[in-house]
Amino acid sequence: MSLISFTSPYFASLNLIHSHVLERFDRAGIKNLTDLAVYSPLEISLKFRYSLNDAEMILDKLLSILISQPKNVYDMLTETSSLYILTKLPTLNRYLNGGLRRGSLIELCGSWGSGKTQFCLQLTAQCCLMGLRTIYIDTEHTFSSIRLLNMIGSFDSKQEHLLELVRTEMIFDADSLMKILATIENELEEEVKSDNRDQCPALLIVDSIAAPLRMSTMGYSRENILLLFTDCAKRLARRYNLLVFVTNQVTTKRRSTVLTEKQDDNKKLGNDFYTSVALGKAWSHSVNVRLAISYHGDTRRQLIVGKSIESPAYTIAFRILTNGLEEIEEDFQTNTQRKVFEKQSTRRLIQADEMHLIGKQLRP
C-alpha cells in the first residue's frame, strides 16, 4: 500500500486530495506514501509554497491511509530488529530504543575538535563489524582509514577485509555533493530493481554538511541548496532504509532581545554573543534526531540527545581512546545533577546556548 504510486488510479479513486497536488509530488520525486512520510508539514509548506495549515491537512489525509492498515505484531517485531545501528555507547542505545534508527536523518553537531569525525568513524566501524555497508562522504578531508582500522582492530586484528564494506567519496562544494547523492540514488535504484538489496548500504555519512555549503557555485541561495539536500537525504533514508548521519558545525551569533524567551537577571549585561548550531531553524526542524558533543578536555566528551521523539533530553559522558569511543560510568553526584537536568528540560527543540550543548557563552 505504501509503495503505490500517487499517479495510479487507486489514489484518484480515493478522492482525498486534488490530482494536481499528487502530480506536483510526483514531479518532485515524492512518488508514494513511503516517500511522503519523511516530510513534516513545515517542509511541505516550504517546498511547495502551501500554507502550513494546508500542508498539515494534506499530510493528515494521505498518511491516514497508512494508519488505517493493520499490521501483524510478529512482522513489526522483525522489522524493528533490523531498523537500528548500535553505537559504542550503551546508554544512548537504550534511550533511543535500540540505537540509531535506519530510515532517518540524524545530525551530530559540535565545535571543531569536539570528536564528530571520531563518532562517525566509530559508527562506520560498528557497521563493518555487523557486515553492513557504508558510504562515507568526506567534505573536510578528515577521513582516516588507519583510524578506522584501529577501531575495527580493537575487536579483531584480522578483520582488515571489512574495510571493503566502506566506500568513501571526497567532495569540495555543494555541486559535487548533490551530484554524488544523485549518483548514489541511481545506483541504489538499480540494486533494488536487480533484487540485490543486500548490496545496498545501511549507513550514509556526510561529514560535514556545513563545509560544502560555504563553497557553492550552483547559483542557488544556501537555503535552496539546503532544501535540495534535505529533500534528497530524507528520500534516500526512507526509500532505501538508510541511516543518513550528518555532522554540523556551530557558529557564534549575536543575541536578539526580540527572540529571547526569558531574560535572566543573573546574566551580566553586555554578554550578547552565544554559540548556536549552524544552518538555521528550518534545518533543525528537518532532522529526526539531533545529537551534540560538548568538549571537556583532551579525551573526555559529553554527548547530548537534544532532539528525539524517543528520548527526553539526556547527557552521556564518554572518552575518545586509541581504540575508539568508551562510555564513562558516572558517579552518584553526576547522576544526581543529570536527574535535575531532566526535570528542568521540556519537550521542545533544545537550543545550544540554552542547555549548554556545545560550550559556554562567549564573553565580549
Automatic annotation (TrEMBL):
Domain RecA family profile: 81-250
Compartmental location: Nucleus
UniProt keywords, alphabetically: ATP-binding, Nucleotide-binding, Nucleus
Gene Ontology process terms (BP): DNA strand invasion; double-strand break repair via homologous recombination; reciprocal meiotic recombination; telomere maintenance
GO cellular component, one term: replication fork
Principal place of residence: nucleus
UniProt-listed InterPro entries: DNA_recomb/repair_RecA-like, HRR_RAD51_Paralog, P-loop_NTPase, Rad51_C, RecA_ATP-bd
GO molecular function: ATP binding; ATP-dependent DNA damage sensor activity; four-way junction DNA binding; single-stranded DNA binding
Keyword hit for Plastid: no
Pfam families to which the protein is assigned, alphabetical: Rad51
Keyword Nucleotidyltransferase: no
PANTHER family named in the record: DNA REPAIR PROTEIN RAD51 HOMOLOG 4
Protein name (database record): RecA family profile 1 domain-containing protein
The species this protein was found in: Adineta ricciae (Rotifer)
